[in-house]
Amino acid sequence: MRVTALPTPLPTAWIAAKQPQRGSPVTTTSEQRSVLIVDDEHDIRELLVLTLGRMGLRTDTAPTLTAARELLGSGSYELCLTDMRLPDGSGLELVAEITTRFPRTPVAVITAYGNVEAAVEALKAGAFDFVSKPVDIHMLRGLVRQALDLNTRPAPSASEEPAGRLFGESDAMVDLRRTVAKVARSQAPVHISGESGTGKELVARTIHGQSARAAGPFVPVNCGAIPNELMESEFFGHRKGSFTGAHADKPGLFQTADGGTLFLDEVAELPLSMQVKLLRAIQEKTIRPVGASIEVPVDVRILSATHKDLAQLVDLGSFRHDLYYRINVIGLHVPPLRERTGDLKLLSTGILQRLAQAMRRPTPVLAPAALAALEEYPFPGNVRELENILERALALAEGDLIQPDDLHLPRGQRPGVHLALGAANRGDTAPGQSPGGMQAASTPDPRTLSPYDTASTALPSYIEEIERAAIQQALQENRYNKTKTAAALGITFRALRYKLKKLGID
Ligand SMILES: Nc1ncnc2c1ncn2[C@@H]1O[C@H](COP(=O)(O)OP(=O)(O)OP(=O)(O)O)[C@@H](O)[C@H]1O
């Protein structure tokens, strides 16, 4: 069915309280872009036709699955908006059919208010996004723009990707990149699991960078690093005077990420009280700043990650099942580096290239023996540890060939930090090896320094090197997870970050 005339008056019942705004046309080509609208309710079809028409789009409408199939057989569409419940079947069937037959046509579903299950099912089936009834026109316009943007945006070049490229040609990495490209075309929440340092944040950045939200902000937040009492205000913002110290209105992370992606790193660290509030914000797509009386709509895609087993935490009762269900619509796993040693060559070359470029020097080459040594090493800190090792090797290597000795790979059992400090004082570790089993040759071994040296900086540098050894040791033992490292050292995350910067670590 083709609708040619626009209906008047508007069926206002379907317009949510949040005031609709006039849409700017999205047509960028001389030809009008077409959208297929599938809904058995006449009023909704009319509302959608009018709204999309004002955006400069051409629309076809169908009241049933059968009619939609007929239109799909004869026309081509840049977007399909479908109701979930249709007289002759489910909108999910259409999602499955279109994603298989026309993978470049995004499908958004219209769900009944509060029907989270339907929304999650549709996203899992490959839907681009969902809108719930009553349809919020402002949100609908945003969704349509983003969906249409998918096929017009040029693919980002490697240099445009802020954190570099996801290197690796192992089956696991090839698979991961393929899935990343697929999920980037949807708005579904994605949960990324994997050990510390495997590249979870890089995966999240890549999803964002390839998505229709790429021009919007990517806001990473370490959920374990925000003090409990500040959490609500950090996430949702606050109004001036809402608590002691709130001297001015402050936007929260959700507002900062509006139009883009909010990456909840270490999501397992969220306290239960915050989990409830977060679930509400994700479900309702609105937030209420601390001290505010009204809710504010936010358009944010949620990506999350943890190195912990979230499903197990749900079983143990420390992570809410409903939040888990909502953020884990699509699950991605990044395997540890030791399970893809075949990637080491490409990863090392890519990382060395990036580091050398930043240092404005020629890219060194890894000697075959050095690569073999890397392949033998288990990398408890995964790619982040490899980066650290290569960065140090780059500083130490004479000439442009990195030899095994330049890598200073840790050997043997690593004792705890307290032992490391004790050993530093006793000097009972092997020569050339740090108390932690790893010593950056660029940093002097604390045991070779003396607080009584005549140089004026002797005591400060003695203390600094002991501090450096302890922090490096703790970082290794906590697999380069900074939150855990800070806890192990008995300092705050902020203090650790300051020290890392001051000491030039990482
Ligand atoms: N496949 C890869 N290709 C290139 N660089 C990578 C790859 N994987 C990880 N890295 C790099 O390794 C470092 C660690 O990655 P990232 O911070 O994404 O890990 P993570 O799993 O989020 O760590 P954590 O759990 O500690 O937060 C980053 O500098 C990242 O750019």
From TrEMBL:
Protein's name according to its UniProt entry: Sigma-54-dependent Fis family transcriptional regulator
Disordered as annotated region, ranges: 423-454
Keywords: ATP-binding, DNA-binding, Nucleotide-binding, Phosphoprotein, Transcription, Transcription regulation
Record-annotated Sigma-54 factor interaction domain positions: 166-395
One GO molecular-function entry: ATP binding
Lineage: Bacteria, Pseudomonadati, Pseudomonadota, Gammaproteobacteria, Lysobacterales
Domain Response regulatory span(s) in chain numbering: 34-148
Record CDD domains: AAA (cd00009)
Coiled coil residues, start to end: none
